[in-house]
C-alpha cells in the first residue's frame, strides 16, 4: 500500500513523524547514550577488580552516568508533556 500525494511527495505516517522528532531532540539522544554507557559500565564493574581506596570506580561512575541519563530523559519527557 503506497501513501503518496498527487505531486509525488511521500506522506509520512504519524508514528514516523513522532520517531523522527524524538531522534532529532538532543536531550533524548544524549540521555539514551548515557543510559547505554551507564548500564555497560555498571555491569562491567562486577567483572573487574579495579578498586581505589576500597571503592569500585566503575560502579560509581556508571551510577553517575545513569543519574545523568535519567535527568536528561525526564527533562525531555517533561518538555514534551508526556506522562
Note the total helix count.
3
Q: What general form does the structure show?
A: elongated
Please tally the β strands and state the result: 2
Unreliable runs? none
Give a structural overview.
With 83 residues, the chain is mainly alpha-helical. The protein is 65% helix and 5% strand. It has a two-stranded antiparallel sheet with strand order 1-2. β1 (51-52) and β2 form a beta hairpin. α2 (26-45) runs antiparallel to α3. The longest helix has 24 residues, at 57-80. The two termini are 34 Å apart. The mean pLDDT is 77.
Question: How would you describe this structure in keywords?
Answer:
83 residues; mainly alpha; two-stranded antiparallel ribbon; 65% helix; 5% strand
Amino acid at each position: 500500500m503506497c501513501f503518496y500525494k498527487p505531486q509525488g511527495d511521500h506522506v509520512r505516517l504519524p508514528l514516523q513523524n513522532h520517531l523522527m522528532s524524538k531522534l532529532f531532540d538532543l536531550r533524548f539522544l544524549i540521555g539514551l547514550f548515557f543510559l547505554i554507557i551507564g548500564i555497560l559500565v555498571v555491569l562491567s564493574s562486577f567483572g573487574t577488580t579495579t578498586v581505589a581506596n576500597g571503592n569500585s570506580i566503575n560502579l560509581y561512575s556508571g551510577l553517575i552516568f545513569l543519574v545523568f541519563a535519567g535527568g536528561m530523559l525526564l527533562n525531555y519527557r517533561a518538555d514534551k508533556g508526556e506522562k
